[in-house]
Amino acid sequence: MILKYIRIWLALTKPRVTSLVLVTALPGIYLGSEEVPSFSFLFYVLLGTFFMSSASFVFNQIIERDKDAEMERTKNRPLPKKEISVFSAALGGILLIILSFIVFYFYVNLLAFYCALFGFLTYVFLYTILLKPRTDQNIVIGGVAGCVGPLIGFAATTNSIPIAAWTLFTMIFLWTPAHFWSLAIFLNKDYGTANFPMMPVQKGIPKTTKAILLYSILYSASCVFFYFTTDKIGYFYLIPTSLLCLLMLYYSIQLVKTNSEIEARKFFFFSIFHLFLVNIFILADYTIHLKG
Fold it and tell me: Which residues contact 99 (CB under 8 A, 6 or more apart)?
């Protein structure tokens, strides 16, 4: 019974997706600090972020439970299968928000909490309720929700949101459409069945792949530009990140040429790998500068 309960809440909170939000918060925490942050402080910032991000996924699944039941990929989620009631899921989601507030209020600061709450509100209300059912540009605007990691990180350490934070925010903002549209290509039939107006469903795959290429170019440019926004990173970030960006452009060009689900799947998983590594390079370069 306990294992079943754990499985249900793991499915509702999507910890694997949340982990990427946590990774994007790390550069802000470190770059905003004058010295290496303590483990306890790092733990509390990530814990508060984890709670709020998890809450957003819970309410997303509550709102979309009927649509999820129609899609092959999501029909076995706890709410469509009625393994948990809407009331219980909502109660758990509210508890996660309260826990996030407690962690940020007592161990971090309120600005970091407001940044996390902004991410929650934009994901649940702007993206899930307002945009996703109505426009194929849903992920462009609604993608703001997934960009709050750097804002939380900088807010936690500096109690402000400097230009470097907004540059990292912009990087993720430009990364999101290309990443998500590649997913929508190989899940095209599923989204069509559920009547979600994703770009491949509304505009077709060829137009979607061209849009992916455009956003890949913009995202890559923002990754390079970030180097010029802070003096805490150097060539150890710039060179490997630039090479990774060239590889991402290669994958996006291949996708435009083939318009295939196989290439879309390759691009999707590489884009996750790319964003993860870019953030790791920031942290590694920061460490090198700190020791130097």
Answer: 51
